[in-house]
Amino acid sequence: MTEKTFAAFIVTYNRPDILMDTIQKILDQTRPPDKLLVVDNNDNDDTKNKLAQLYPGVAHLKVGHNSGFAGGGKIGLQTLAQEGYKWVLWADDNDPPYTRDTLEKLLQLGESYEGNCGQVGVVGHKINKRTGLVIRTTNEELEKGEYLEVDTIGGGMIKVIKGESVLKGIVPDPKLWFGFEDLDHDLSQQKAGYKILVHSGLFLDLRKKWNRLNFKKTATVRKKEESVLWRDYYSIRNSMRVMVKNGYYLAFFSILFVSIAKTLVSYKYGFRYGRLVTQNTFKAVRDYGLSRWYKRI
């Protein structure tokens, strides 16, 4: 019987054209998945019909409602791990692999690592347990070897997860819906003794592509487009939950303080902008305190 080595799933919501492009790029990999599954959060059949027309060999699973990246991630991981796949790619519909050999290199790293590897990916960082912020991985760290151990691999950064960990119950928390579900999952893997690795060569190549080799993060509060401010609600609410869940209490209070401080600073961009930021922050803190995980904005 042939070993089920590698499968992939893509979580999508109402973006069939973008999804089709990502599917093609995954299938064009030098090591494509043995099975590709689309976890469809739509409540209509647009994606299903387009998939049947263009990629009839790709499996489709209709959720029936928008379960978010967290809910879709849990469904996809459990479905493929229970089918016996050793490694599972957790992908978003607008984040295809960056090079044609990305998946091949990640699988080679996961298979060759002598320790207990829980997942491999392209971009990852350590977490400051006092602030809850990521500690940017340096170029020097990446240049030391083929891989680097990190605390988390962000969503969209090509996460290939060991199916064994899924079968042990380590899956994304659907309550988080959108935002920090990847960090929550990764910290759970670490607690269970799994190592999280990034491929140094792929990481460095991506920094070169994005012209971020010499990137320096500043403390300036930048103005965002109003159309994406809703994301802050989930980021604040969910990050506080993740910090408390993992015992990072200083990080919880740091996130709370910084979030409130940002609302004050945001008014320099105008009253309307400041009011929107303040509303999102207030709702996030309120709904965290009241455990309103069903809340959507």
User: Uncertain regions: pLDDT < 50 for 5+ in a row?
Assistant: none
CATH class membership of the largest domain: Alpha Beta
Structural class: alpha/beta
Question: How would you sum up the global shape?
Answer: globular
CATH-assigned fold name of the largest domain: Spore Coat Polysaccharide Biosynthesis Protein SpsA, Chain A
How many individual helices? 11
Can you name the CATH architecture of the largest domain?
Alpha-Beta Complex
Portion of residues in beta strands equals: 15-25%
> How large is the radius of gyration?
19 Å
**Residues in helix, %:** 40-55%
Main sheet, how many strands, which sense, barrel? 8 strands, mixed
Distance between the termini: 48 Å
How many independent structural domains?
A: 2
Order of helices and strands: EHEHEHEHEEEHEEEHHEHHHH
The side-by-side strand order for the widest beta sheet comes to 3-2-1-4-10-5-11-8
Number of DSSP strand runs: 11
Mean pLDDT rating: 94
Question: What would you note in describing this structure?
Answer:
The protein is an alpha/beta fold and 297 residues long. It has 2 domains: 204 residues, Alpha-Beta Complex (Spore Coat Polysaccharide Biosynthesis Protein SpsA, Chain A), CATH 3.90.550; 64 residues. 44% of the residues lie in helices and 16% in strands. The chain contains 11 helices and 11 strands. The strands form 2 sheets. Strands 3-2-1-4-10-5-11-8 form an 8-stranded mixed sheet, with helices on both faces. A 3-stranded antiparallel sheet has the order 7-6-9. Strand 6 and strand 7 form a beta hairpin. Helix 9 runs antiparallel to helix 10, helix 9 packs parallel to helix 11 and helix 10 runs antiparallel to helix 11. The N and C termini lie far apart (48 Å). The model has no long low-confidence stretch (mean pLDDT 94).
